[in-house]
């Protein structure tokens, strides 16, 4: 964990170096992914099953790779009632939030008499990657599937690594209405969704987080299909004054550190004594976390404490462009309103980032690795597309046509110019 003092003459150079540190996918991972994608594209289901045996140590066939309706029902039934209730509660809030994002089609006639507009249509088929392995992620199911449903996507195909499917994941799939689930993970799952593999039909877009292999695979199939983003390690910045409970702030920082050894947790405070108390609380809580090994590595290698005036916090946050930022201060809007680059902003002492991960209703699939400078979190807009509509009659074309000819000729495109000129009887 690094400490930065805003008033230190060397702060600017040290902070800039920290901001620009990269946590990229190793080149060896990308090379391995390339080979997996190539094999699945050439061999289809045979390659998918072979890689499942090789990487996941699971022997499946073309039938057992699909999760049946009975499997979903049995798994959901095995989920504890309180977890099922929480899933239903979260799903309803996520749906309500994303329903409000639905855009309107537009149609209007401008001053030249040209009818213009646009209409929105949903993507036909979407693949959702749900991580498995060390933990179950029912929230990932809800955050990716529910907005797609709200958008009107016709087919949603979920993939998740083989092995024991967690009841909570199946309960979330059932709550979200997912009917197509495949026991396949890693780069081979991304390849199957992108290119098709036997009974796994290709999709138009792939969403959902994964490990370095999944991210590298999504990068490589982009263009063949759409993707949501290239998810990097989680990030949180907590802006807090000394009036906070240090235990609360420590827990907030560790809520992201526990995701991955490469995750990043940063405290910005104007109170040096409070910073010391938070650091002590972090170390104490690490001793009691089941995820403490990863969290400790994250805090050690990528954590930071910045002592700075609170008025400087928005500028620092904008440079970090983090996935999450909390403003645990009085009247948090006075600073938060100055933040331009962040995936999600959490306001006040009673709004920990964990609320956003599960039940606030906003989406927890957010830009990482400073991508908040140019992109947004997952939303209904990731599952719909806009088509422009243009209609000219003879009178309006008479106004637009000559300008079209002039511009086409200026660009050296005679067929473009002739297309308009013929209608102007100038051909």
Describe this structure in words.
The structure is a single chain. The chain is an alpha/beta fold. The chain has three domains: 2-23 and 232-360, 3-Layer(aba) Sandwich (Rossmann fold); 27-227, Rossmann fold (3-Layer(aba) Sandwich), CATH 3.40.50.1980; 392-423, no CATH class. The protein has helices at 11-19, 27-43, 45-56, 69-78, 81-99, 138-151, 167-176, 186-195, 212-221, 246-257, 272-286, 292-302, 313-320, 333-336, 353-358, 394-410, 414-423; strands at 2-5, 66-67, 106-109, 115-122, 125-129, 155-160, 180-183, 205-207, 226-227, 235-240, 264-269, 304-307, 324-328, 344-347, 384-391. It is globular. The relative contact order is 0.14. The model has no long low-confidence stretch (mean pLDDT 95).
- Largest beta sheet: strand ordering: 1-12-11-10-13-14
- Please give the CATH architecture of the largest domain: 3-Layer(aba) Sandwich
Shape: globular
**Mean model confidence by pLDDT:** 95
The CATH homologous superfamily of the largest domain is termed Nitrogenase molybdenum iron protein domain
The end-to-end span amounts to 72 Å
Helix content: 40-55%
Task: Using the coordinates shown, work out and report the CATH topology of the largest domain.
Answer: Rossmann fold
Radius of gyration: 25 Å
Specify the biggest β-sheet: 6 strands, parallel
Quickly name the level 1 CATH class of the largest domain.
Alpha Beta
Strand content: 15-25%
Unreliable runs = none
């Amino acid at each position: 964990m690094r400490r930065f003092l805003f008033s230190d003459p060397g702060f600017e150079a040290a902070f800039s170096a920290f901001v620009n540190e990269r946590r990229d996918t190793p080149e060896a991972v990308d090379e391995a992914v390339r080979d997996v994608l190539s094999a699945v594209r050439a061999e289809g289901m045979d390659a998918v099953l072979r890689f499942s045996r090789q990487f996941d140590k699971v022997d499946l066939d073309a039938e057992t790779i699909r999760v049946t309706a009975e499997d979903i029902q049995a798994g959901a039934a095995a989920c504890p009632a309180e977890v099922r209730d929480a899933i239903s509660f979260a799903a309803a809030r996520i749906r309500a939030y994303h329903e409000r994002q639905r855009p309107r089609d537009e149609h209007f006639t401008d001053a030249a008499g040209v009818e213009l507009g646009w209409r929105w249509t949903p993507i036909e088929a979407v693949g959702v990657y749900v991580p498995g392995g060390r933990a179950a992620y029912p929230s990932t199911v809800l955050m990716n599937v529910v907005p797609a449903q709200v958008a009107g996507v016709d087919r949603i195909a979920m993939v998740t690594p083989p092995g024991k499917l967690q009841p909570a994941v199946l309960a979330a799939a059932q709550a979200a209405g997912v009917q197509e689930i495949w026991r396949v993970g890693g780069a081979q799952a991304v390849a199957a969704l992108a290119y098709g593999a036997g009974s796994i039909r290709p999709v138009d877009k792939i969403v959902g987080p994964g490990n370095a292999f999944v991210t590298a695979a999504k990068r490589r199939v982009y263009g063949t299909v759409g993707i949501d983003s290239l998810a990097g390690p989680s990030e949180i910045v907590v802006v807090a004054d000394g009036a906070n409970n240090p235990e609360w702030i420590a827990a907030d920082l560790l809520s992201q550190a526990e995701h991955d050894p490469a995750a990043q947790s940063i405290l910005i405070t104007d109170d040096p004594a409070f910073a010391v108390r938070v650091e002590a609380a972090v170390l104490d809580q690490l001793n009691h976390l089941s995820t403490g090994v990863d969290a400790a590595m994250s805090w050690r290698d990528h954590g930071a404490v910045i002592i700075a005036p609170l008025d400087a916090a928005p500028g620092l946050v904008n440079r970090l462009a983090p996935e999450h930022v909390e403003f645990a201060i009085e009247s948090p809007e006075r600073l938060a309103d100055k933040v331009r680059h962040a995936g999600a902003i959490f306001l006040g002492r009673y709004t920990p980032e964990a609320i956003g991960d599960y039940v606030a209703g906003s989406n927890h699939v957010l830009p990482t690795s400073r991508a908040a400078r140019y992109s947004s979190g997952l939303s209904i807009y990731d599952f719909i597309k806009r088509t422009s509509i243009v209609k000219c009659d003879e009178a309006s074309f008479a106004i637009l046509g000559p300008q079209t000819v002039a511009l086409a000729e200026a660009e050296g495109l005679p067929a473009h110019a002739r297309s308009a000129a013929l209608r102007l009887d100038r051909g």
